[in-house]
Every structure is written in C-alpha cells, then in structure tokens.
Design brief:
With 331 residues, the protein is mainly alpha-helical. It has a domain of 181 residues: ABC transporter involved in vitamin B12 uptake, BtuC, CATH 1.10.3470. A two-stranded antiparallel ribbon has the order 1-2. Helix 12 packs across helix 13. The longest helix has 36 residues.
C-alpha cells in the first residue's frame, strides 16, 4: 500500500511537471509569447501571437512530448531485451537506416538531376521512414536465423555501420548545399513538424505504444533471463520480433520527422528506475514515458533561450552524457 502511494505521488509530480514545462515551452522562444505587443490583458493574444502559438509553438511542444516518450520507452525495451544498461533505441541501426534514406534524397537526388528535396519535409520524412523500415526488415530476417540476442545486437550494429559508411561515401560527392541540408537534419529539430506531419507521427507512435502495452508481461519475464521467461510461457522469438517492430516504429518515426536525438533513449530509463526503485515494466513503461517527455520539453526550452535556437541533440547530449558516464563509473 505504501509503495502504491509512493508511485502515485511520483506519477502526480511528473504529470504536474509536464503541464508546467508544456506551458513554458509554448511561451518560450525568440519572442516570449506573453510579452508586451503579443499579449494584451484586456484583449488577449494578438493575431501574430495566435499564429505563433498555433502554427509553431503548440506543434513543437506536442512533438517534444511524443519524441521524449517514444525514444525513452524504446530505449527501455532495448535495455531489457539485450540486458545491457547502455543499449538505446538506435542500437539496431534504425537511425543509420533513416540517415541513409535522407542522404539519398537530399544529396544523391541532386547528383543525378532529380529535385526530390524540393518536396521539403514530406520527402525527407518519407525517405527516413523507408530507410528505417529497410533496416527493420533486415534485422527481422536476421532475427529468424539468429537466436542469440548478443549476436542480433552485433548484426544490428554492423548493419548500422554499413549504412553509415554509405552515407559518408555519398557525402564525399555531394554538393555543398545538399550536404548542408543533410547536416542540419542530423542535428535534430522539433520545429520542422507541422500539424499535418504531427498527425502522421502521432498515428505511428500510437501503433508502437499499443504494441509496447502488449509486451509488458513478456518484458518482465525477460528480466529473469530467457530460460526463466520460457518457463513462464513467454514465446521468445515472437516477443523479440515485436520488440524490434515497436522500437523501429517509435524511434524510426521520431527520427524521420525530427532527426536523430541523442542520449534520451539511453539515459531516461535509468532515471525512471531510480525514481520508482523498480524494474517492473507495469511501472517503468509509463514512468519512462513521462520522464522522457519532461526531459525533452526542458531541452527544448533551453534550446529556445538563444537568439538562434540550438539543435535539440545538443541539449539532450548535455543532459544524457553525464548520466551515461555515471552509469559506467557506478557499474
């Protein structure tokens, strides 16, 4: 009873913090939303303020919540599957596959005279999804043949390395303008997601989240090791495939629309487990999602304090990297 009360307090605190950071995030930016000129206490927001709120700030803040929750939960699943505290959502090469897809559109297409990049965010996001899906299919094919999780991890890393090498090869021959566009994508941004992209992203995240909810019991079984999990009735191969699919949907969807966001998926599960002092996925899955959403909102607020907003990966690395160093030293 006392434990449930403690959990309820932490959940309530995280939800309250989420509401506060959400409001701060939609107000923050190069122009403070409640500043004089945008806000009149008698008439409310000006027309400029309404456009700023509805077209930029709200989609950005909602994207931060979705990205933080999705990356964190996918990182939690990877750490459970591989029983490795430093595993993250990009460990199976999803980010590299998405990067290869974007590189082909932004740099290769211009080499051969195609202007696919002119389609803008839609072309970039679609290419990233195709690249991530291609890596997913390769990993799933390998997962049917390779029964050992460590071997699957190594294969995923090698597929990511091959994709990364191809990206480097393309960069070597790309023109400067296309190369700059690709580099901007790799830095990560929440501001490029509008309402139409956000709708697609939300559907992808919801599908991934539904799969995660069906995996809570199998994930708890995997905490005890594969032999114990089998004794409890967990179908290891089926569970592993579902974990890979859910991770690629969550991490691949976010990467497609926002670019790679560093360290969130690796660091946040450790924060959630430390706050709630449990590894039970019934508790850690929602806790990790809430902590991740709060963390990325904080990162986005910090990014927007500057005249020229920082890339989201810069601030997320400043938060995440010290946590990883602490984990390595502790263990």
């Amino acid at each position: 009873m006392r434990l449930r009360k403690t959990y309820s307090i932490w959940y309530a605190a995280l939800v309250a913090a989420l509401a506060v950071f959400f409001v701060l995030d939609i107000c923050s930016g190069s122009i403070w939303l409640l500043s004089e000129g945008l806000w009149s206490w008698s008439d409310g927001l000006s027309e400029l303020g309404k456009n700023l709120l509805l077209q930029l700030r709200l989609p950005r803040a909602i994207t931060a919540i979705l990205a933080g929750a999705a990356l964190s939960v996918s990182g939690l699943m990877m750490q459970t599957l591989f029983r490795n505290p430093l595993a993250g959502p990009y460990i199976l090469g999803v980010s590299s596959g998405a990067g290869l897809g974007v590189a082909l559109v932004t740099m290769c297409s211009t080499m051969f005279g195609f202007q696919l990049v002119a389609l803008g965010q839609v072309a970039v996001a679609t290419s990233a999804i195709i690249g991530a899906a291609a890596v997913l299919l390769l990993v799933l094919v390998v997962a049917r043949k390779v029964k050992n999780n460590v071997s699957l991890l190594i294969v995923g890393m090698m597929i990511g390395s091959i994709a990364g090498a191809l990206v480097n090869l393309i960069q070597n021959f790309a023109n400067p303008d296309a190369l700059k566009l690709f580099i901007v994508w790799t830095l990560g941004s929440l501001s490029s997601v509008g309402w139409s992209e956000l709708l697609i992203l939300a559907v992808v995240i919801i599908v991934g989240a539904i799969i995660v909810l069906t995996l809570v019991k199998p994930l708890n079984g995997l905490l005890l090791g594969e032999n114990y999990a089998r004794a409890l009735g967990v179908h290891i191969d089926h569970t592993r495939r579902l974990i890979v699919i859910a991770t690629c949907l969550l991490a691949g969807g976010i990467t497609a629309f926002c670019g790679p966001i560093a360290f969130v998926g690796v660091a946040v599960p450790h924060i959630a487990r430390g706050l709630f002092r449990t590894s039970n996925h019934r508790t850690t899955v929602p806790a990790t999602a809430l902590v991740g959403a709060n963390l990325l909102l904080i990162c986005d607020i910090i990014c927007n304090l500057f005249t020229y907003p920082l890339p989201i990966s810069t601030t997320s690395a400043l938060f995440g990297a010290p946590i990883i160093i602490w984990i390595i030293i502790k263990r």
